[in-house]
Batch of 4 targets.
Target 1
Amino acid sequence: MAKQFTDEDDALLAELGVEVTAKKAAARTPREERIIAGFEEIQRFVDEHGHAPKHGEDKDIFERLYAVRLDRLRALEECRTLLEPLDHQGLIAGSELAAPAADEDMDDDALLAELGVEADKPDIAELRHVRSSAEKKASEEIASRKRCEDFDRFKPLFEQVQKELDNGMRETRRFERKSEIQSGRFYILGGQKAYVADMEEPFANEHGNIDARLRVIFDNGTESNMLMRSLQKALQQDETGRRIIEPSAGPLFSDERIDGDEASGTIYVLRSKSDLPAVRDNRQVLHKIGVTSGKVERRIANARLDATFLLADVEIVATYELFNINRTKLENLIHRIFDPARLDIEIKDRFGNPVVPREWFLVPRSVIDDAVERIKDGTIATYRYNLGSAALEPVVKA
């Protein structure tokens, strides 16, 4: 959009001997507006992913759509002339021209049809109008599924989750953009319950984002070794994508255990190697306390890239394994008990955004050991942390 000059701008330019002539923007046809809108979608994709959309059956359905659309824009002289002044990313200008298709009036519906996708209406500027068949196809293309040979291990888990959904112990919520994928959690994708049975060591992908290879078991007896980011994207794009949560999961510990039960947890205690003054001056008593369902080594593999780990490597001080336990509820309880000793610090993440880590506490290691013993004997909820004495003490009821 052309910049609109104010009267003060005009006066300043006049003093510099520059004439300001109002130039009326040429009216565009609906077809030209649609071409520009489609190109802007491609530009947003490039801004987000750092590369032009590519072809390939292993690519996301929307990336493939953008790739076909870009080929056509490059091939048609009318589109090149219209878009080159807007092409700040070099997608049109100087690019190798694609061979023009037989039908130069092919629209997005036709492009989608070539990709095996059905659209609700001719204009797909808003991708949410793509029907559920596209969502199913996209999720299937994320990774090929195969028969789960040891499904007998997981079938009782799905049955138990369904029972807890029926009696209200669990509920489902929309999978939002900031939702996390974690080992041991259940999700709903394409109408099927999905269980993340394992998560391999995290790594930084080509865009600098943390990713990991997953083993995902589906309730129809199939499994897939998809990437964490792919599962996140599939759940976001699926209008019925849900995460299964436990808002009222009952007691902290459970006496009932089913075959293949993954409801065990590891409490981990970490010490930071950060050179931040607040860390360096309190290193011996500053600990990150968390609970994970997987291996702690995997959890901390990319600590220096994660602001919650203070963007620094960490060392494992201690781990404690517990079984038949609600991990989320346990972690919340531990953090609530040690809240008076929580480290108050704000740091910038790798992109310059402010982050306030919430799992670091100025607590001696001996007190953490004491807390774990209270967890094991089931009395932890009756204790609180006294900051003055640096010790746990019983809660005195009024």
Target 2
Amino acid sequence: MLQFAPSSAGSLIALGLCFILVCVFEFANGFHDTANAVATVIYTRSLRPRTAVVWSGLMNLLGVLLGGISVAYALVELLPPDVLTPPNGNPAVPMLVALFGTALAWNLLTWWFGIPNSSSHCTIGALIGVAIGDSFLHARDLGHSVDWGQITKVLRALAISPLLGFFLAGIAYLLIRACVKLPALYTPPSENDKPHPVVRALLILTCTSVSFSHGSNDGQKSIGLIMLTIIGLIPASFAMNPGHTLDRPQLAVLANDARPLIDRYDRYSFRPDALASIDRLGNPAAAATPSEVRGDVYEILSGVRDVGANPAASGAEKAKAKTIAAQLRPCVEYAPFWVRVLSALCLGIGTMIGYRRIVTTLGEGIGKQHLTPAQGAASEIVGAGLIATAGYTGLPVSTTHIITSGVAGTMVAAGSGINMRTLGKIALAWVTTLPATITVSAILFYVLA
């Protein structure tokens, strides 16, 4: 599949397939992640299901439009530069099929069993698998071809956020119980009774906040995946940001500024490739396609990112590396408006069709007693805060893990007890997702490539 030439019939067919895969994956993402945002408001009958998912979809769209793209490209940078933009300019079909095929299959499998699994984990595992498969394809040492620093940074955020969700949601529930004496907040919903107006308003507010924050974080992941598709398959049109202000000579100046930093710290794997890219950008006689320039920019970004992570680098050197990276990124990291809208639409439509299984699990499966409005509100308030914070700091987190761990925390705080069978299923999915998706994606990429 690496032999597909740009604009060939095979490339166009692959483009259509990958576009379908990425849209279906985001559609399935709506089953899992966005369903968490509407679970409480639907379970307590504060809003009708159709109204809830439409409102959540609108808030997701707003979050996607206002949330930036830092999370999107934090995931993209998990891939080696030569996978993002193959040096020969061929479409990155094996990477896209391995990525979307693996993540989609795992998402659908866990959804079928009603397990709130993390689409973020699926995506990150598949990305790591592609990077590892690329190492085997080129017979390179894993320690010198996979950006473990970037991977560690992303995984650390995924690991810490559920723990914060558990403890902070438990504390938030205790504070609500101590300050608000409204009995309706602490009574599981009844099929015959309408929710109290205060309860209804509170849960609509928390649903709104989680939906918006989900769009600002998970919606960005969707943007990153769609951009991977269009850049990987039509690099001539989308490899470089058409709105960027830096021309080739200006890129060469920035590249030369990065040379002494990258050259000094030679224990990192990206140094030789980054230095070669600096030479190419600085050679005015060297003709380069947009895809090749993009590849060179990513090689340099990998090099300066390693400088920033090197404990031997001084504070001034790290600051200079960060500045150079900030000036280079807008050339290759961008998202057209239509990509943001497509991301939000896929998430919203998926929520409308597949929310029921996850809503039932969150409402009735995590605790030994059914979820109360106060528990739902506490978990969603904390979840919205954590997700929004991560979205604006450029760290990807799992909406599913934060909300489910928050619900579990409120169950413990209320003395309701936890359903260990359901929790065991969620924990099993949490533990096995990364190894499974890494393995499948690495094998699939290697075989296809």
Target 3
Amino acid sequence: MKSFEVRTHPSSEAFPREEQLAWRIAEVAADPVDVAPEVVEMIVNRVIDNAAVAVASIGRAPVIAARGQALAHPFSPGSSVFGVTDRVSPEWAAWANGVAVRELDYHDTFLAAEYSHPGDNIPPILAVAQHAGRGGTDLVRGIATGYEIQIDLAKAISLHAHKIDHVAHLGPSAAAGIGTLLGLDPGVTFQAIGQALHTTTATRQSRKGEISTWKAYAPAFAGKMAVEAVDRAMRGQTSPSPIWEGEDGVIAWLLDGPEARYEVSLPGAGEAKRAILDSFTKEHSAEYQAQAWIDLARRLHAEHPELADPANVDRIVLHTSHHTHNVIGSGANDPQKYDPAASRETLDHSVPYIFAVALQDGAWDHVASYAPERAARPDTVALWRRITTVDDPEWTRRYHSNDLREKAFGGRMEAVLTDGSTVVDEIAVADAHPLGARPFARADYAAKFRMLADGVLAADEIERFLGLAERLPELTPDEVRSLNVVAESALPAAPKGLF
């Protein structure tokens, strides 16, 4: 990897575009380096994973609305939308499928200086591949770039510290991935990256307080903007430049300010794009920083059943990272995180709620665990309100460690019972994590798809899709166009809007 200093440059300074971060990313996108076999294997896994969680959300209100918007924009050859046979304009397919993938917060993640769900790159890159008639080899290369750039940016530049939503890294990464897919000249991809970043910087209020349905739409919007930015750049249109480093650019006014310095590492010429291997998927439908806590709660349910009864519990304190404490823990100071009437989007960002339910049930379900009647159960509410989080310096250090062998997303639980006894236990990573108790492999991804597709897709449709996905690098353009699923029954019609 090559490291570059990224800082603000005044307009009066001659700052060649070849030294700008957007250009360096465009050069990575244009590098025709082969994709390593283990990276191809993981890309196949994540295509399956994305489809699994999209199918599971296909009847949920935000996905119905997004699909309705997309279907109002038919196009030929166009791109496919999860669940139906219609073809639509690629930016609208990226939009609808992006919402379906993100709705349940159930796909892959990478956490470092910034949060990210790098699987969000797949819907826009796949949509353009289908529309442009690209085969599996090009699609794999595009996805490898999307993951690489988003993860490299997440390692180097914190957005959340300035209350900027993490999708500001996704717009540029998706644009870069599409540039790789299409084999665009770096000059074109450079302009698309600048436009994609410029149009996808927004505040983190979409993930604060009473969280709305926009949480699922935000990354889909970034993917849609990336597709449109590539289209404009291909037509010769230009973007604000330098977008990160300009005097009135992103660093100077949205991030650490005019004196800031960032070190961004990107693959050098001829160096394989391997960042996808640093990411990890979810076994459970909840924010990633809750995954390990669910697994610990399931274990404690069997080993210490007394913890499930609030009558036995004085308090439970989860010692965890700064991020977990402040984003999904009591450190967020969001009363909604303890509200039994809160939205599903809010509950999946409340580790006190998640830990309470998993502790009582010994399991986690993407539907039942969030049901209003489950959240309102009196004994659950009583236990839930006895659970708090604290920012533990050691778990924060491990969260930020660049050594993947010690990087951790869990913590230590300390329970004080009403009889004065204590229960203490800890977990570093989720069971499904590459270093966890049961790391996810191809069979687990396929099993997740079959489980979530059951009752939504016909059995032969499930196996057809899995068969295609597992041959991803070999697919012809026509097969890439059929890399979609069609629901067994008619899907709900979308509410009426403008279109």
Target 4
Amino acid sequence: MNDDRIAGYKILRRLGAGSMGQVFLVEHPRLPRRDALKLLPGELSRSDDFTARFAREADLLAQLSHPNIVTLYDRGEHDGSLWIAMEFVDGTDAGALVQARGPLSVDLVLPLIAGAGAALDYAWRTQKITHRDVKPGNILIAWDRDANPPALDTVKLADFGIAKAAEESTSLTATGMTIGTMAYISPEAIDGSPVDNRSDIYSLACTAYHLLAGRPPFTETSISALMAAHLHRPVPPIRTVAPHVPAGWDAVFARALAKDPASRYGTCAEFVAALSAATQPSAVPTGGPAYSPTLAGSAPAVRHAHTTTTGRSQWLLPAAVIVAAIALVAAGTFVFLNGQSDGSDSTVAAPSSTHTVTTTTTPSSTTTAATTPTVQAQTPTETVTVPVTPAPVEGQPCGADQFNDYSADGTLYCSAMNEAWTDLTHQSRPAVERGSSCSEPGARARVQYTDGIATCKIGPDGTLIWDW
């Protein structure tokens, strides 16, 4: 690779780097314009499966034209690495803003969430595209610096689609999923169920929660603990961590963050409308976050797109993620975003097992007059046997009265998504290659590049290997 050019684009400076590649500010080879160029890692670029999916997703995303979506300009291959060129937003992102300022005001968060929500609704309505990696770092912001004080001018959503290609051609853990991404992922994306726009609504609500509270809904320090929290723990009411928000928002967030997609709002617009309806000037306590810039209208204007942030560059990375990827996108930036933690891990109580109960009743003696013999009556011992419920097995059907229950050993839970007992043990392990060695008999793990689950078994030669 030429030191100062990529596919004809002149490199002006590097804006960010991470496990999914590098992002550069570049000068277009023919037009008087600066773009953001993402150079993907060689290991992804060498995968024929990923390359094909990457091209398919990029072609879909190139058709998206919306004022709140970062535009994809071009794609190609350079020195064995895939690249995409996209719109450059000269500003910051919501993640960097909340990191620098702390919890944001209601007046600022509403237009940020409205802009990102409009982008999500448009992509789903027109192309049935889900984002899969909605988070503060993917909401790009630019200001009207001529206004006094500076007014919000641009809200654009980055990281559409390409992570879906990574998800489909690799596995969740194999693609470098980070806590910064997992903090906003929906329950159905975690357990492998089909996802639609309601998954993005959950992630958008997690993002709004973070912007208002200065932290995401769950702050566990490991990916497995975050997975368990999204799947099973109730979300703390927003006003317990952000007392400056209107009282009516507790109910709105409770619905948007419901574990069951059917219980959520149907569109992002409905979520934003519910927030607006519950926002009454008298309901917003004083003493909230001091940072509340003047807004340039309810629908921020569109302008050039991409980001540089204080202390570290934050960038549009084409992608979206679910159970798969830290993402890169046909429209966005790359972000170094580490999950914040309160140091608490989620704990889930397993249902107690049934057992045999024996009860003995002995009534007190009854004594008559002196001339009457003493008579004692004793009730015979009564034994009540409660049948012991057999332990469930992977794939066994379960009913509505068992949804979200755990097996006694904590390795299975009853999923409302597929109405069956679902194994949990594979989620805490990296993806494995079939036939590779293992050390824990009976352990389970996802097989690389597939949705299959392997078990650690004794192989033909007597050694432990991962096998179907």
